[in-house]
## 1
Amino acid sequence: MLVLIQAGLGGLTVEHNLHATLVAVHLGIAMILLALLLCMYRAAHPGPQPEAGRASAGLRATAAIAAFLVLATIVVGGYVAGTEGEGTADKPSGGAHTACGTDFPTCGDELLPYGRDSMVDAQLTHRVLMFAASVSVLAMLALALMRGIRGWPAITAGGLVLLQVLLGALNIWLGKHAGLIIGHLTLGTLVWAVVVWAGITYTRFPGPERSGAPPRPA
């Protein structure tokens, strides 16, 4: 169903000249589809689940919050990118990407100057969500280490989110560069996938012995 919705939404996005809201929703559905594919893979290959046995309810909740905030950051980032109108006939003179100039983490010598205009508000919302997502991912890593879980997902997510913050800052400091923008989106997708996978590993999936399915032959 999501693939069909995504196809129709992609057509609407093109017909409406890359409207920022449609770009953001299109990107958000793509992320949800990726997460569902990861869940389907895990459900089909439950295997040993030692992390799920050691994970606490607090760790699972933190992982869920981190995933939500990362997704929200990506969606708002898609909206920011959509306001640029690159390649469209009605390309605006400036979008949310450059609304704060080259100032980061401040914006025009202020930390959160909401209310200046809609482009500044979009940029600031993206930044606030980015900081919140970073804190939640690092909190997930800390809780995992406290529970004795030293698998690669949480550690990788912590390292990637710090790298993503740096890359986002470079996007602001160095101005608009296609390579930096593509890299930022690609790394954001990777952060999302790893955070989702970390949350999946902390959740017990029923194996054949729990679901009542016959065991696989050796």
## 2
Amino acid sequence: MARAAPTFGQKLSFIFFITLGSLILYIDITSNNFQSIKNGFKSFKISSFYIAKEISIEPLKSILSHSKSKSQLVMENKNLREALELSYLNNYLISKENIFFKDKEIIKKAYNENKYKFEYDIAYLKSIDPNMYKCCDQHRMFIEIRQNTDNSYVESIVFNTEGLVGQIIGESKFYEVLLLTDISHSLPIKLNSSEFFCNAKGSGRSGYIICTYNPLVWTKEVKENQIFYTSGLGGIYPKDIEVGYVSSIEAVDSTQTNIEIKLLANPLNGNVFGVLSY
């Protein structure tokens, strides 16, 4: 059967501990003998809290801060890279040494205190298959034009900071660009002297187009490293834009000679492009 009341021993123990606690409290109030113990306990609490914080909270804060600063740095680098590419595009068109200035009718320009302004739009790369570009006959890429307008960009030329890369051939969600190296692409080109013209076809190889001509018809000698320019005869590309240089010449037979032209521009270099209607 359970006891209903405490025993004499339990009462005695209770009185003893009450008396002992009161005595300790009295001594502490009157003499401060326990002050060092209290200070040591407070110091232990503070040290324990600091150590626990350094071990648990601070590493998490450091990781979050580092992650945040890293993402900010990545974003800043991206913005700086795009700004630099835009600057290069502007310089490509604005430079008075650039081939665009050979034909004064190519681009509408405003002249004000030696500063030129051009009408072109900015586009960003959405997709390109580098493996397809380096191995196969069909070379395409897709771009998104920054401006939200109702303009039709089909047949507009596309260039990057190095030069011409192709022309827009279709639009749906993004604009499809037919690259110069696609085997279905044809580009009327000429030497700077305007004494030699031919239609350069895409070679299906990255960085090269092929110009085929009959040496019995065109007797003008073509040499390696000579520079070819757009002739303006196709109605798509403006006249006198530098395209590339002769890398090799192959005489197939008496009626056919192939000129391999190394292009100046690589569409894989950069994510920002200019779009220009001519």
## 3
Amino acid sequence: MPHAAALALIAAYYAAFNAGDHPAMLALLADDVRHDINQSPPAHGKPAFAAFMAEMRRAYDEHLTDITIMATADGTRAAAEYVVHGAYLASQPGLPAASGQRYLLPGGAFFAIANGRITRVTNYYNLEDWLAQVKP
């Protein structure tokens, strides 16, 4: 996959995220996608990714801005950094109680790409920063 196509793929992924279009996000993933979630064990496959996104939609309202995407020349790897503008809507196990707390959090992601699909998504953000922002 050429560099420009990798950039377009990741841009489409984030456009779908910001539109809340999870089926469009899933369409960009390989069936056996690996999802490395910040501070959590990895998940494998589209069904696990879909379940994660459903839980995210239930517990958080997020929109990304300042998205910068980079890709290798051969298009097999990409990275992005962004700012998450969010609200914590539903309490999650082991986390503070949710009451609509708003947060602003820088984040980043790394991607592996093969055959025109995303084969790995690895997300990073500063959990301690997020916790400080949502503590009641």
